[in-house]
From TrEMBL:
<dbReference type="GO" id="GO:0006887">
    <property type="term" value="P:exocytosis"/>
</dbReference>
<keyword id="KW-0206">Cytoskeleton</keyword>
<dbReference type="InterPro" id="IPR001806">
    <property type="entry name" value="Small_GTPase"/>
</dbReference>
<comment type="similarity">
    <text>Belongs to the small GTPase superfamily. Rab family.</text>
</comment>
<dbReference type="InterPro" id="IPR027417">
    <property type="entry name" value="P-loop_NTPase"/>
</dbReference>
<keyword id="KW-0970">Cilium biogenesis/degradation</keyword>
<keyword id="KW-0969">Cilium</keyword>
<protein>
    <recommendedName>
        <fullName>Ciliogenesis and planar polarity effector 2</fullName>
    </recommendedName>
</protein>
<dbReference type="InterPro" id="IPR039677">
    <property type="entry name" value="RSG1"/>
</dbReference>
<keyword id="KW-0342">GTP-binding</keyword>
<dbReference type="GO" id="GO:0005525">
    <property type="term" value="F:GTP binding"/>
</dbReference>
<keyword id="KW-0268">Exocytosis</keyword>
<dbReference type="GO" id="GO:0003924">
    <property type="term" value="F:GTPase activity"/>
</dbReference>
<keyword id="KW-0653">Protein transport</keyword>
<dbReference type="GO" id="GO:0015031">
    <property type="term" value="P:protein transport"/>
</dbReference>
<keyword id="KW-0813">Transport</keyword>
<keyword id="KW-0966">Cell projection</keyword>
């Protein structure tokens, strides 16, 4: 499934708008992001109650590209300074509010990020099926400082599209700030985008306000997950009409 253009279904950069503060204040405390456990959620007052949509996101990439660091960045947690291979499956919960363009409806997206070490996936056969089970989207990661991780994308992506095409696929290049050590040229990125018809988002550098640096990735995920749900709902409706004989 191709990604939709930014702003097609949700208000872009809504986190900068005044009417968003009531919602974003529920995921921020003293200018820092709140840490939500598996059973926790933002508490909205009755007059501003919103629906919450749950999704499972798997982070794919070679060892050392920054999968755990990206999950921490998206959740507003402390980013580890030293790389340690993730020994099993690690999950991180991210809440992100969006506003729909069509009707102004506000939704909370609950994104459960799944991160699993590359070596663990190789050693234990049961881990990958667990990660793939009921997954809604995949973040494909490569590092701008590791050309091999960029070249490996052509091996990673087909593995996730063999079973179904109804999967949101987003590519993120990490360590974009380390331009002095860049091993992936912009022309290579453009060629990849043309070949795979997938945009490449960037991540790296110091965390700013905790929102602006993660908003492009989280908005991209939310918008395309919403679009995917709409497509599925439309297909289900047409199938039901066909079964009941209401279609010609």
């Amino acid at each position: 499934m191709s990604l939709v253009p930014p702003g097609a279904f949700i208000v872009p950069d809504w986190h900068r708008c005044k009417d968003s503060k009531e919602y974003f204040n529920k995921i921020i405390h003293k200018k820092n992001r709140k840490n939500f456990g598996l059973l926790e959620s933002p508490a909205m007052p009755p007059h501003a109650a919103v629906d919450t949509l749950d999704y499972k996101i798997f982070i794919s990439g070679k060892s050392g590209v920054g999968k755990t660091a990206l999950a921490a960045r998206l959740a507003g947690l402390n980013i580890p300074n030293v790389h340690h291979e993730t020994t099993g499956i690690q999950t991180t919960v991210v809440y992100w509010p969006v506003k729909l363009r069509e009707n102004g409806r506000v939704l909370f997206f609950r994104l459960q990020l799944w991160d699993c070490g590359e070596n663990a996936l190789r050693r234990f056969d049961h881990l990958l099926p667990s990660c793939k089970e009921q997954v809604d989207a995949v973040l494909f990661l490569f590092s701008f400082t590791d050309r091999a991780s960029f070249q490996d994308l052509s091996n990673q992506i087909p593995k996730w599209t063999e079973s179904t095409d109804c999967l949101v696929k987003v590519v993120v290049g990490t360590k974009f700030d380390l331009f002095m050590h860049c091993d992936v040229a912009e022309r290579d990125v453009r060629k990849f985008q043309e070949t795979w018809r997938l945009p490449v988002l960037h991540s790296g550098g110091e965390v700013s306000d905790g929102l602006g640096d993660v908003a492009p990735i989280l908005n991209c995920l939310a918008e395309n997950l919403w679009h995917q749900d709409c497509v599925r709902a439309g297909a289900a409706g047409r199938e039901q009409q066909h079964e009941t004989g209401t279609l010609p």
